[in-house]
Design a protein that fits this description.
The protein has about 350 residues and is α/β, with parallel strands linked by helices. Helix content is about 35%, strand content about 15%. The chain has eleven helices and 13 strands. Helix 1 packs across helix 11.
């Protein structure tokens, strides 16, 4: 089976630091290659893959501000669509824009919906929710009742990049973009009320939020800001942490850092929003809470969480192998459906 993986072109695939959609696209591509599939990754020219790389955009537009995002997206998507006939199936990780080409090609396309940036994009998904188009959700919580889905497949991470650590240091970790949605300020309040050291790592996505809600607390003693963390630093930070704080303020579709934390054996304390009840085994791999005070309360019980249980849970649900197994089933189902529809 020849499969085209369409990755975004905001960042390199896989990303150097931030880029969750690019990371998932990379994990799927590499996992499929290891299973013997003929995979072509459509991504930026500096991307890295064991499969074939096809690129018309040299670098991610978030990494090279000389590149116009809309121009890059148009050139990138159209390039794949003009070569769609060379593939048995297209796996889209580029949100709704590629859907608009599918009435012009014969190759079936499955789209992993990584979340809805706004309800305003739903009409595009609705229009193309039919013949030759198939949708996969990344959690059961992130499904629109207006759409039909072929499956839910949880995001998978590379187990080899995350080291199990049974003996953590005495600090809490916030890992993610600095933005109101991700609850950076809430994490600081939890740490201060619990009288715990907090390390913050992530890109500053909202500068005004950072300056108003985060920067005043940074003192390089109990509240430390490191900036973005690459793969090696992320592994070390997660593994050594007592717990990951994930006090989100939005209905998060998945949350890669939550899975990555548990893969290191580190439990997670998260607000009860979005997919968190699907990712965290409450009381076994962390705690799902409703507010800052409850998070502080649960921190007193964090030592009761078995770190090996966190690792085992993550391996059983959020590995690349588990994700690829899910997508192979989806691909097989699509190809079988296409054959039946084409039969006289």
């Amino acid at each position: 089976m020849k499969i085209a993986i369409l990755s975004p072109v905001a960042w390199r695939t896989p990303p150097r630091h931030y880029g969750p959609w690019e990371q998932v696209a990379s994990n799927i591509a590499e996992g499929l290659v290891r299973r013997g599939f003929d995979v072509t990754l459509f991504a930026t020219g500096d991307s890295v893959t064991e499969g074939k790389l096809d690129a018309v955009i040299p670098e991610g537009y978030e990494e090279n501000k000389e590149i116009d995002p809309k121009v890059a997206e148009c050139l990138h998507i159209s390039h794949l669509m003009e070569n769609a006939h060379k593939f048995d199936l297209i796996h889209n990780h580029f949100d709704f824009l590629p859907l608009t080409y599918t009435g012009l090609i014969n190759t079936p396309m499955v789209t992993t919906i990584h979340g809805f940036s706004s309800p305003k994009i739903i009409p595009v998904y609705k229009k193309y929710n039919g013949y030759n188009n198939y949708y996969v959700s990344i959690s059961n919580s992130d499904r629109s009742p207006e759409l039909n889905y072929i499956a839910t497949v949880y995001n998978g991470i590379d187990i080899s990049q995350f080291t199990y650590n049974p003996h953590p240091d005495d600090y809490l970790l916030y890992l993610g973009r600095i933005h109101y949605d991700k609850g950076t300020w809430e994490a600081i309040q939890i740490a201060k009320k619990a009288k715990k050291k907090l390390i913050i790592a992530g890109i500053i996505q909202d500068k005004k939020y950072f300056e108003a809600k985060v920067a005043p607390y940074i003192n390089d003693k109990d509240i430390i800001f490191l900036g973005h963390a690459g793969p090696e630093a992320r592994d070390e930070l997660l593994g050594r942490a007592t717990a990951l704080l994930h006090p989100i303020n939005f209905e998060e579709p998945f949350g890669l850092s939550v899975a990555e934390s548990m893969m290191c054996g580190t439990p997670v304390i998260a607000f009860n929003r979005g997919s968190m009840p699907e990712l965290i085994a409450n009381g076994k791999t962390g705690f799902i809470v409703d507010d800052i005070d409850e998070a502080v309360e649960k921190l007193q019980k964090i030592h009761r969480i078995n770190r090996q249980a966190c690792r085992s849970w993550a391996e059983s649900r959020f590995s690349i192998d588990q994700m690829v197994n899910g997508y192979i089933k989806v691909y097989d189902k699509i190809i079988e459906t296409v054959k039946k529809e084409a039969a006289p």
